[in-house]
Amino acid sequence: MVATASHPKYEVKDLALASVGKQRIEWAAREMPVIKQVRERFAQEKPLAGIRLVACCHVTTETANLAITLQAGGADALLIASNPLSTQDDVAACLVADYGIPVYAIKGEDNETYHRHVQIALDHKPNIIIDDGSDVVATLVKERQNQLSDIIGTTEETTTGIVRLEAMFKDGVLTFPAMNVNDAETKHFFDNRYGTGQSTLDGIIRATNVLLAGKTVVVAGYGWCGKGVAMRAKGMGANVIVTEINPVRAIEAAMDGFRVMPMIEAAPQGDLFVTVTGNKHVIRPEHFSVMKDGAMVCNSGHFDIEIDLKSLGATATGVKEVRNFTQEYKMPDGKSIIVLGEGRLVNLAAAEGHPSAVMDMSFANQALACEYLVKNKGKLEPGMHSIPTEVDREIATLKLKAMGIEIDTLTAEQEEYINSWTVGT
Ligand code: ADE
Q: Within 10 A of 31 (CB to CB), how many other CB atoms are there?
């Protein structure tokens, strides 16, 4: 870790938290057998030797296991938070104190600090950027054109970040390869669905301790994350309504057994609202004004733009913190609207994010995507690239093995049949 004249070697809350962080990182590692195998191979082969790497991720126990893996692979890695509220301060402390990884992340940091950390990350002159939401890449493209020649590529695992990268490519400003980690089946089938499903309810319950059974839960968005939240809320006994703008997903939600309707119809019925759309102002003044007294709203999409909190704040006569990560907005008609996690990712603000067992596969994809970028340096076209199918399959095979599950293999006869077109009716 080298301090430059302009900024310190790290910025974490308190290095004394490191021992607690270490214990928690090791606990998470027990559920991360795939990343462990990648780490052991990386330690032998050093595929990232000489690579300056910036990771802009939620600083959690799972991310720590990724960072340690990248370091084992030889990377000169620096970590910043991808959200002001998602940092686990003990984890940040441990990475600095025990692994010498420079971390710039403090839970509750303000927006100015967050953006300053993005600048510090770019001062590291990265060759590879692991981005969550694409803030580092967007800043690089807008403000650091002179560093583009250093870049081998980026990897991105959030749906929001992928949408942004695609927009950059369309505008002709994405001039290097971007690995679409979200697209890997071992990522979105599990992290987005089971990870967001469980961790979102975990955040809501830790923040409020409400009973979900019998409540009406409105889930805005039926992508992989929305599917997970709706499925798990239903499993807890909630009566789930889905809102969508995509007609195909709306049919899917209806056939999965959920009521589907516009938000303006759902607003007076819901006890709890969860946004997972990736778009802005999905819940706005016209919806707040018809909600029940005590309705709770929260977001599990990447950015805090899905709930129009600015308008809510402007209308409210007062705002009170009633529990950790739980704020009561008093409306002029005497009604209350409860906002969880300040409209930021409730699963990371009020809980610990997705469980380690799913992040194991997401982060194995991240580490292998970095290795792929280095191996193919100079050979990949600018723009979006999928994780190779063999890598996805390999991750699934390792995970199954770790779970003690065996599966069938094709017989020679089946192999021949499946590869031929000549046999029909
Ligand atoms: N995104 C969602 N959950 C996460 C976790 N546990 N660690 C890092 N990133 C995440």
A: 17
